């Protein structure tokens, strides 16, 4: 259903959908629905990381998704299980280590992300001793990318200790 929009410039300036600075009610509802969907996909994505669940993470991503971790590499949606395997190996965790050892808590988003169009989160893997930030981009079909930056002092020490034990 379309609602009539009046335009101070007169009816000829208003074509039923938009006028200067005006948006129809259906367009507002559509934008609201899109934001709700994006928020739900982001929430599912964050829950996937909290549970170290590559399937849940993948379900919240958009086609073309890529994840960049400076210590482990770049991974597509289908390669996310390999990310967790590489993380387990890099940290000297055996196959018996459960998902709780590989979980990441993402808190945020922070105000004023450094890159327009992204959301910045604090990222922490408590059992691995890794802390840092993540820049996440969410599109209309899900998360399109995540780029991680770790606190180098803590991360380097953790990785050094893991190599010494392997």
Overview of the molecule:
With 166 residues, this protein is α+β, with helices and mostly antiparallel strands. It is built from four helices and eight strands. The chain has helices at residues 25-50, 54-59, 80-90, 152-165; strands spanning 18-19, 22-23, 61-69, 73-76, 105-107, 119-125, 130-139, 142-150. The protein has a six-stranded mixed sheet with strand order 4-3-8-7-6-5.
Keywords summarizing the entry:
166 residues; disordered N terminus; globular
In short:
The protein has helices at 25-50, 54-59, 80-90, 152-165; strands at 18-19, 22-23, 61-69, 73-76, 105-107, 119-125, 130-139, 142-150. The protein is α+β, with helices and mostly antiparallel strands and 166 residues long.
Annotate the secondary structure layout:
Layout (H helix, E strand, L loop, with lengths): L17 E2 L2 E2 L1 H26 L3 H6 L1 E9 L3 E4 L3 H11 L14 E3 L11 E7 L4 E10 L2 E9 L1 H14 L1
Parallel strand pairs: 3-8
Antiparallel strand pairs: 1-2, 3-4, 5-6, 6-7, 7-8
Oligomer: single chain
Rg, alpha carbons: 21 Å
Could you give the order of strands across the largest sheet? 4-3-8-7-6-5
How do the SSEs run, as a string of H and E? Answer: EEHHEEHEEEEH
Q: Helix- and strand-based class? A: alpha+beta
Outline type: globular
The first-to-last residue Cα distance is 65 Å
CATH T-level topology:
Nuclear Transport Factor 2, Chain: A
Poorly predicted regions are: 1-24
Assign a percent range to the helix content.
25-40%
Name of the top-level CATH class: Alpha Beta
Strand content: 25-35%
Tally of extended strands?
8
**Tally the helices: what do you get?**
4
Please give the domain count: 1
Largest sheet: 6 strands, mixed
Named at the architecture level, the CATH assignment is Roll
Q: What is the average of the pLDDT values?
A: 78
């Amino acid at each position: 259903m379309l609602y009539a929009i009046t335009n101070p410039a007169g009816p000829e300036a208003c074509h039923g959908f938009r006028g200067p600075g005006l948006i129809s009610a259906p367009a507002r509802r559509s934008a609201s629905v899109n934001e709700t969907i994006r928020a739900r996909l982001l929430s599912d994505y964050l829950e996937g990381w909290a549970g170290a669940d590559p399937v849940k993470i993948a379900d919240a991503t958009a086609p073309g998704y890529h994840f960049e971790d400076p210590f482990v590499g770049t991974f597509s949606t289908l390669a996310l299980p390999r990310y967790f395997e590489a993380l387990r190996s890099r940290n000297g965790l055996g196959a018996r280590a459960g998902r709780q050892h590989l979980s990441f808590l993402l808190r945020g988003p922070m105000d004023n992300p450094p890159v327009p169009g992204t959301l910045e989160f604090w990222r922490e893997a408590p059992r691995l001793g890794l802390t840092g930030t993540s820049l996440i981009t969410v599109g209309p079909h899900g998360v399109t990318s995540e780029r991680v930056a770790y606190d180098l002092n803590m991360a380097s020490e953790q990785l050094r200790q893991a190599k010494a034990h392997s």
